[in-house]
Please model this.
Amino acid sequence: MGGAVRSRLAWFKSSTRRTRATVVAGLIRESVARPITPVNPFRSFEIRIGRGDAMLGTEVASLVDLCRRQAEVRPHERAFVFLDSGVVEQDSLTYQQLDRRARSIAVWLRERVRPGARVLLCHPPGLDFVTAFLGCLYADVVAVPAPPVRRASGDARHTRLLGIVDDCDPDLILSTEDTVLDVGALATQNLDDRSDEWRPASPSGVAYLQYTSGTTGKPRGVVLTHRNVLRNLSLIVSAGSRPDERYERSTTVCWLPVFHDMGLISGVLQPLFLGHESVLMSAQSFARTPANWLRAISRYGAEIVAAPSLGYDLCLRRVTDEQRDDLDLSRWRIAAISDEPLRARTIDAFARRFRPCGFRREAFFPCYGMAESTVLISGGPVEGEPVVAEFDATALERGLVREARPGKQLVACGDPDPSLRVVITRPGTDVPCEPDEVGEVLVSGPSIGEGYWADPEGTRTTFGATVLGHGDRRFLRTGNLGFLWRGQLFVTCRVTDLLEVDGRQLYPYDVEATAEAAHPAVKAACAVAGTVLVEIDRRSRTTPPDEIRNAVRAAVWAEHDWNVPTVVLLSPGALPYTTSGKLRRADCRSLHPGGY
Model:
């Protein structure tokens, strides 16, 4: 099936609009769907859903149970809103409407595929993805969130889509009517209401495949069960709330793509878990006008909002003082921020810039997570300011933790939840580090995914680690270096990105920041083994190349005591990024011949 989907997409790129418009057939596998056997069948457990005095406990065994319960408790309250161009309410759904549409899609799916089939969701931004995703869960088929189909073959989203298709071999594609005409997908819009025909089934356990961002290689599908996801949603509530807090009706605003882990959780599943309203907009709308994200936070009085650092940085660069002065951000109490690594300067600059419109620095909620752990591993604190500590830079280069003032500033990623066990080990081994050593972060707990789809070797290596002193307990190798200090987790660098220079360990992000500040012509940089790749601003193409190279070498030597062997200048747009805005470092290593 993967080959069939790929050929459809190739045909789509080369065909005329008239020819594409003649295609209405669906891509349905005729053979029996490959079954999925969960490693750990989920169990029912009690979570608390509701708000204020109406909070109640209920047994929830699956995300289907959760959505059905919310439809009973608050049928006419709005669950989701989509803003066209990030401004105008184009569509909305109440919890009752959400439940009915999901049931109708589930009935329709059960007539076409068997339980356990993989269903690719290629919806453009909007609420059709939300109903289709839940429809898959109601039908007990495995949802596979993916980017929408695009004609530009070099687009990162298109590349990601093809990688997902090849990996999971989907049985069916769901999308909107426009895509139906383009690639033969089946549309989930305007279906007849058949919700009364839906009958509950015992879920097989697997909810969806969450594909990784592809920062270090091709995206891999993490198998997530209903239990994994519910546990992580509960963990997020625990990390982001005070013991005596009551969950009043709140709103979140999200521009993150819903096919990414952070976008799916913060924009769709966490609001559903809490019974909150979620206002969605497209990432493209945000990128064009970042002020629209802040305007929506102000307009809807959003209290809990999440974004990677690049979202806050874009607001700093593109939101004018005039736009800022019309905002009211005083109700924004949790501003989740994540990145590799977190930077104190982003937190400081955003808090200072938007203080006049009511934003508080204490609202920042630094956090750390990954698709393999559903999303969140650690975060906080929810009260007080983000934890920023200073450490001896020379000691860190030797893998040691020594507090020093003044020193290198690092932002803590919060205290890991008690349901998770976090251990720091010497990279690639099962030997725990000493308390003052930097090592690889390993995590174990009920919200860790079951493994990678159709990749037993990768699953064994990444999800099956053991640690001396912890018995047979299985740990996830995060691939990140870090350490625990005063109860807080600090994440410093990916193991594979670390630069080994004369027995020292340099973090590429620090070298890249130095390179970017070395010369006005430098737009972006990527530091890989022995090389600094530098992307040049379009307006600076006439600058002598040696002038730029020498400036970068001099700055890196002065700041990091590293005589860079090679500085490669790249044309604008040459550095490859994932769909979440991260450098595809594995691909960057092959760019040397592309320089000038």
Remarks:
- The longest strand covers residues 476-485.
- The first helix runs from residue 2 to 14.
- The mean pLDDT is 86.
